[in-house]
Design a protein that fits this description.
152 residues, alpha+beta, four-stranded antiparallel sheet
């Protein structure tokens, strides 16, 4: 009897995870559209407006942070629409802000063979949240927590 309950719990958890994955894909898509049509400043303001409206006190912030990172890593690995680094970072930051978990949006650039490359990621207490440190070490940081500057 215990194995059946364990399986039911696992199945419920898996369904919840799948639904969360779908919602995150949708959020990234909406943010991509917002960035395209209204730009970073206005998109950030819209996200900030909606993140203030949630009054949820999530007690286990570390678990939520970890599960959110897992979902976004799975989105990055999928072949279908996954958004760009900026929309992924904004979406993850939005979800974390709703749970009162603060992160900094960091934007960096580097030049290779005359081409300019840019990348966005999140940091929490100076640690990279949604990327690997070896990926971002080649970027020179242009702005840290740029959305707080844009919204003011």
């Amino acid at each position: 009897m215990g194995k059946k309950k364990d399986f039911e719990l696992f199945e419920t958890t898996l369904k919840g995870h799948s639904w969360r994955l779908i919602k995150c894909h949708g959020l990234i898509s909406l943010i991509e559209v917002g960035l395209y049509f209204i730009g970073l400043k206005s998109t950030s303001k819209v996200l900030q407006f909606f993140s203030k409206k949630v009054n949820d006190d999530y007690s286990n912030k570390a678990a939520y942070l970890d599960s959110s990172i897992t979902v976004f890593n799975q989105i990055k690995e999928r072949g279908f629409f996954k958004g760009k680094c900026l929309s992924q970072s904004l979406a993850l930051r939005f979800l974390l802000q709703r749970r009162r978990i603060s992160t900094d949006l960091v934007i960096g650039t580097y030049i290779k063979e005359g081409n300019l490359f840019a990348h966005a990621w999140l940091e929490k207490d100076g640690e990279v949240v949604n990327d690997h440190p070896f990926v971002i070490e080649q970027y020179k940081i242009l702005a840290r927590d740029i959305t707080s500057v844009l919204i003011k």
